[in-house]
What we know:
By secondary structure, the protein is of the alpha/beta class.
Amino acid sequence: MKILFMGTPELAAVTLAAIDEKEGVEIVGAVTRPDKPKGRGMKMLASPVKEYAEAHGIPVFQPKTLRGGAFDEELGALDPDLIVVAAYGNILPHEVLAYPKYGCVNAHGSLLPKYRGASPIQRAILDGERETGITAMFMDDGLDTGDIIEKYPCPILETDDCGTLTERLAKLAGEAMCDVIDRIEAGTVTRTPQPEEGASYAAKIEKEDTVLDFRGNARDLSNRIRALHPAPCAVTTLPDGSLLKITAAKAVDCDADAEPGTILAADGRGAGGITVRCGEGALLVTGLIPAGKKNMTAGDFVRGRRVSPGERWGS
């Protein structure tokens, strides 16, 4: 079976690797997003999918768009039997969806129809979900609305952040796509239309989603921090107005009489911890990134900068 793969981030690269290691398939190409400038030097960086493909002799294609016949010539030359998609980041037009003999299948990072859209993993953690997974689906012209082939559940652990959960889902996505390929080859693949009942949309994470409002519930704020780590990270402001990224924290009980955002305790011993009053409960902050610095423990931050009980963050 000739397979054209489309994907961009690490989850997609892990999925591509699983298919590449599978016997009886030929990956005719990998389509990924164009290189992007990153960091202070604005160096052009390749996607994880491009890095894997080039290291394993898979032809790489980086069209800015697939619309308007922009990829028709390459698609005809590659002539895939099946297109496999995982976190590609571009909409596939109808002419691409309709080309392969076996269609286009996608590994989506949620249990559809919940969390259709761009940020299913982050939104599931942010909402306090206890379970997510990978849905293998046939793609159609809608946004993650195609027929379901199979769902592969995955628990969301209390200790998970977006990084650790994505690692497990990436492995599951690879297994799911290999399973789907086997079913297609055996002629046993099934398709079940998605119900509209229970459908939800996982909107792209925007800048305003990263801001911590300490007037909220401490558990909800902890979920936000977990959902946004390792990138882009939840942020607050210090009394001097500088930004502070919070990388690790947990909700703790608290009945102190203080305004939300008030520092209740600052422990600089060892890894340490900074306790911040919330509208309900408190956050014990254990990891953070000050402006212009690298990730550090709360203890390092307290020892390097005077953090006094009574000062307020996010005000």
